[in-house]
Amino acid sequence: MADAIIVLGAAVWASGPSPTLQRRARHAAALFHAGRAPLIVATGGLGLHPPTEAMAITDILISQGVPATAIIQEDRSTTTLENLGFSRKLLGPDTRTVIIVTDRTHAPRARLTARHLGYTATTMSPSLRGGHPRIILRQTIREFFAYPAYALRLRIRGKDTEI
């Protein structure tokens, strides 16, 4: 069992939470109900459309039967490093083991970032079934370039775990 589940944010559209955000939040709720962790951190700040990604995740989690008392909102972040770094501050130094919920394409970079911040982290991803192939391809290409850029950025930062 992990100390917490951290759900990484995704876009909120004018019409509501994006399909990506919905898949992540539902997957986190299923993990919670399976007893994988006692707490969920919903991450993500305000994008182009309200509410914050964290609030949208929280609403979905509650609709899936997760008690509000088991949810912490981190609603300032705009990057993966901020998602995990701000979550680290909210969870405190005693939280070591986390499950990060994000898409498979993003999972390697999320784990890299989490390890840098001192977490023992695993990633669990919802199915991409129903995802648009063009969007999945775009995410894969983005991560192909983002992973080495993040690795360099984190190496330059050193072992400082503060954001």
From TrEMBL:
Residues 3-127 form the DUF218 domain. Signal peptide: none annotated. Transmembrane segments: none annotated. This is YdcF family protein. It comes from Loktanella gaetbuli.
